[in-house]
C-alpha cells in the first residue's frame, strides 16, 4: 500500500492524499506538479520517472490513513 506522503520533498507544499497534484517514483519519493515539471519528471533521489500519484478515496483513508511524516530537503531540489 502506498505511503501517500503529505508534502513535496523539494518545496514542502502540502499534498493531501485525497487530492490530485502529487507525483511519485517507485520508491514513493513525492513531489508537487510544479517541482516534478522542473525536475523533468525524473526523481532527483533515484533517477526513476515521476508519475501522478493516485488519489485515495475518503472511505479508504479512514481505514488506511496517509503518512504524516514530512520529508523535505533542507536545501530544496534546485540550485540557487
Describe the protein's architecture and organization.
It contains two helices and three strands, in the order ββαβα. It has a single domain, classed as 2-Layer Sandwich (Herpes Virus-1). The protein has a three-stranded antiparallel β-sheet with strand order 2-1-3. The N and C termini lie far apart (36 Å). The protein has 80 residues and is of the alpha+beta class. The mean pLDDT is 94. It holds the Pfam family DUF1272. This is DUF1272 domain-containing protein.
Summarize the structure.
It comes from Deinococcus metallilatus. By secondary structure, the protein is an alpha+beta fold.
Helix-strand layout with pairing:
Elements: E1 22-24, E2 30-32, H1 33-38, E3 51-52, H2 58-63
Antiparallel strand pairs: 1-2, 1-3
Mean pLDDT: 94
Radius of gyration: 12 Å
Determine the strand fraction and express it as a percent band.
Answer: 5-15%
Decide which structural class fits the backbone. Answer: alpha+beta
Please list the strands of the largest sheet in the order they lie side by side.
Answer: 2-1-3
Organism: Deinococcus metallilatus
Protein name: DUF1272 domain-containing protein
Pfam families: DUF1272
Amino acid at each position: 500500500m502506498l505511503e501517500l506522503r503529505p508534502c513535496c520533498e523539494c518545496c514542502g507544499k502540502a499534498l493531501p492524499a485525497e487530492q490530485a497534484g502529487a507525483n511519485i517514483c517507485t520508491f514513493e519519493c513525492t513531489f508537487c506538479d510544479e517541482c516534478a515539471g522542473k525536475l523533468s519528471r525524473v526523481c532527483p533521489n533515484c533517477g526513476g520517472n515521476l508519475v501522478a500519484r493516485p488519489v485515495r478515496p475518503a472511505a479508504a483513508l479512514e481505514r488506511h490513513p496517509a503518512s504524516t511524516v514530512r520529508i523535505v530537503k533542507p536545501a530544496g531540489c534546485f540550485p540557487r
